[in-house]
Amino acid sequence: MKLIFEISEEGKRCATIRKPQIKSAKLNEKYLRKTELDLPEVSEVDFSRHYTALSRRAFGVDNGFYPLGSCTMKYNPKINEEVAGLEGFTRIHPLQSEKTVQGCMEVMHTLSSYLAEITGMDAVTLQPNAGAHGEYTGLCLIAAYHAARKDFKRTKVIVPDSAHGTNPASAVMAGFEIINVPSDEEKGVDLEALKKVVGDDTAALMLTNPTTLGLFEKNIKEISKIIHKAGGLLYYDGANLNAVMGVVRPGDMGFDVVHLNLHKTFSTPHGGGGPGSGPVGCKKELAAFLPDPRVEKTDKGYKFVESKQSIGKVASFYGNFGVYVRALAYIVALGAEGIKAAAQHAVLNANYLKVNIEDLYPTEKGRHCMHEFVVSMQELKDKTGVSAMEIAKTMIDRGYHPPTMYFPLIIHEALMFEPTETETKQTLDEVIKALREIYEEAFKDPEYMKSAPHHAQIGRPDEVKAARTPVVRYQK
Amino acid sequence: MADYLSCTERETKEMLERIGVKSLDDLFEDIPADLKLKKLNLPAGKSQQETMEYMTELSKKNKVFDIILRGAGSYDHYIPSMVKNLSSRSEFITAYTPYQAEMSQGILQAIFEYQSMICDLTGLDVSNASVYNGANAAAEAMLMCLERNRKTLVTFDNIRPDTLKVLKTYASRRGITVKVLSCKDGVADLALLKKELCETTAGVYIEQPNYFGLIEDAEEIGKLAHEAQAKFVMGCNPIALGLLKSPAECGADIAVGDAQPLGLPMAFGGPYVGFMACTSKEMRKLPGRIVGETTDHDGNRAYVLTLQAREQHIRREKAFSNICSNQAYCALVASMYLSAMGPVGLKEVAEACTDYAHYFAGLLEKEGLGRKHKGEFFHEFVTESEIPADKILRALEREGILGGLKLNAHEILWCTTETLKKEDLDRAAEIIRRVK
User: Fold this and answer.
1) I want to staple B292 with a disulfide (CB 3.0 to 4.6 A). Which of A236, A466, B48, B62 is the partner?
2) What CATH number should be reported for the domain holding residue A176?
3) Do B210 and B186 touch, CB atoms closer than 8 A?
4) Cβ separation of A81 and B359 shorter than 8 Å?
5) Interior angle at CA A205, CA A201 and CA A208, nearest 5
6) pLDDT at B1
7) Sequence-separated (6 or more) residues with CB below 8 Å from residue A447
8) What confidence tens digit (pLDDT) does each residue in A394-412 have?
9) In terms of pTM, does the model score above 0.90?
10) Which B residues 352-391 touch A at CB under 8 Å?
11) Residues B357 and B273 occupy one common structural domain
């Protein structure tokens, strides 16, 4: 389809504003733009058709099954969009006086306290705008904690080889060196290897639990002991909290700092890549270092407070407030039982999908998975030449979003399925049938699959060309 | 209680049987029993109707002002109906990052169009798909400027306080010095800047217009930065770019800013969207997602996430930035806004903002609230007066007007946008007259 620039015609207008009934101001010529703007000029009907067409070439949870592992593509309840759009939330300036924004502050305070309860932490900041931003913030807290104790040797952060790529990248941004630790045979942290790398230079271990393989880290108590004995802190990457919320809390597992993803676990929509929100919780020993400002409840209502020991600000104003409104509406609707039920059914759906395909799509044997599971297509590739990616592309032809591909890095030809709790059994049964048929097809017509998808918006794009000769903007 | 589950009890039972366990709890056997939680201490769930009532009540505890004369990083602009309407399509809202290009051409093309418009506004060659907000965009730009022996960012005390705070947070963990120079009559002091620049300066960061609404002599600042072989980074208000010289015309290497004024509500501070653009020379240091054009195997035009070798999921600890999720949806809204307004509309908005600001500054001067600074200004300005700022702002607030932002006991930072009418400003001035 055409770019909006390609339907542009000089002189067309779409939105218009009132003309000011006053004398116009004259700014000094030397400050004024010399080059003409080349923004599109379209009529309203052009505008509406263009964006409708774009939306029809987008695929969201509302379009169909979206088992993108580690991303928790659960359904986004419509009521959350409606409440976030209430004028009493949208038309509020962030720098209004406190007494005129008590509702917004109550949203922030209530959500923070609910998240503290769900994670077993003592204090929560909502400020970080995404998961990786939360990681960065959490690591800054850890750095501040060690520095406040004059423990300046702690410059290293340990990261398992199965970790999300953001973990090491965030730790480097927070000024740490990275120590990678391998996984053991059960795909958990290798305890012996961990013992060898911990020491008086260990600032923290970053861990996802369940791990990125969708398995609960059984040795968590032992890991916690090893890290804490060495004087380090335990950091919880909350990307996979959907598996265990209401069942077990990071705080009770021994974690000191946690970040959450409201756009995963708490159903706020992903919007094609954001906005997310990455609240960070911590134990009371670290609370003084949280970003400024925090909301406090007093006899006279809610107040913003700052801490002398704070790491400062990590984002402007108070973070992605509109996302908090949605997440609060979600938690309020679910309540204590609903939160736990969501986790239980996320795990139920994942296991149901797994048990029905694992004879063809091999995964870790003999254990129940949590909310997601990783299969390896190595054997199929050896036999037929069809790779994990080609399975994924064939799923597109059938109208399903593929699972996460080639992650975690420690599994060859990996596909990571996370169906989430909001999918129906009927959908899962259809997907199971489709996946089993796709597997058979790999033997019958591998060549056809290697050029999949055949019925999508485009065929396989040339990514090498895109990177070698970058065209990253429209030019006439 | 809502649960958003889609499974009946009968189905749950069937599924458990198929898995080979008796209960949902059996699926969690890997979790040590002593760690398991008895019960979350949260209220019981609510029906949809009760949730609606609860959230609506909360929203009513906030005061919505009819007239807003406050900016300082969050701006009340008119949001065109077609932007609100088309952006609310759930295909846009409920999609993930477009990892699967073959089924995400709509999202990818929307980002490509957004990038193109940001390049057009800034005059620069490359834009990313957005970062968290304007302050974070500035921080990421600071990191782009670093070189082995250049680890100081020079800026002035007339940038947004939030931006400065975020810059300092990001600098502190990376051994970067943020040198904050004093401005002179509200604008960058060029003589002081020239003295400060040296072989360890990585970059110079200014805002256009600056926090006080004043227009900086950006071209001169850019020249000084480049003479010292430092990068020049401009933080811009995107509406002002409809009127003012583009960062490219001012010689900027990197332009950043918050695109909130482009169709996003104030929403108590977020979600907003940080934009970042740079010259092609800096392209491979630009953080975050970038969409590129290519062809599919039949030669049809196609869009993909590209230059991913910069990013965390490939480079892990060697990545330039840790950014993964961005503010793509807000970027979509911003690009819709720019399409709806077009070049003429954007300029009209920018001119209306300036016209009202100058008209209002004139009215305030008559009431004894003279401008603090001499320089030219866009749509914000600072006044000083004998009358305490609190008194003025309280009087306006009583009449449903959100006055400017109090900077100190006697100074106020005002902002006007096209949402206002002449009568609104006359009325505000009238209220202030009675304060004396």
Assistant:
1) A466
2) 3.40.640.10
3) yes
4) no
5) 170
6) 67
7) none
8) 999 999 999 999 999 889 9
9) yes
10) 352, 354-359, 376, 378
11) no
